[in-house]
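MODEL INPUT / OUTPUT PAIR
PAIR INDEX: 1
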Amino acid sequence: LLDSDDKALYPSGKGKEPGKDVKGSAVLEKLYDGFALRYKKRESGLLIAQHITSKNQPALVEIVGLIAPLFK
């Protein structure tokens, strides 16, 4: 999916880092559809968020570094 030039996935255009430039909810919707599952952003997003950890998603460290100062 990240290799495509689909405007639904890249509404602002595909940049140099497709994994960062892609619209996450559009990718999830297409992935769910590929497995004949119904994607509901609020419900599915909550379930996914409950299983995300810095161990299985190391890029979270970068995000935490950006927002941590806001909560001090």
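PAIR INDEX: 2
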Amino acid sequence: MSKILVVDDIAASRDALAKLLRTSGYETAVARNGAEGLVRLKEGPVDLILLDHMMPEVDGLTFLTGIRRFPKWKNMPVIMFTGNKDRATNRQAQTLGVKEFLIKAEFTPQQLLDLVAKHLPQPVPQ
């Protein structure tokens, strides 16, 4: 079963995303910022990261810059989401290997699941 790390400082958003993924057959881990996300990565294997851009303490781009230095996380698929449509942020995220970039208020649960499925094997129904 594929494991997805959801990193978002807004608990309601983080919990809703994790629940959607679990009900779709994925295992999840959650973190409220990049520092906590790094701890979760070290706790065990993760296959994909859903990453918020703007967070306190360690934001999404800083987190990505840090993990990309480690060979085991250098090519990990990342889907980044944010509430802001800043093109410079999008470009910077892409240079750090972000596979997809979503605007928080503009994607549906099915669109997110489709993007996750694009980068991970389909979960086995239980």
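PAIR 2 NOTE: The mean pLDDT is 90.
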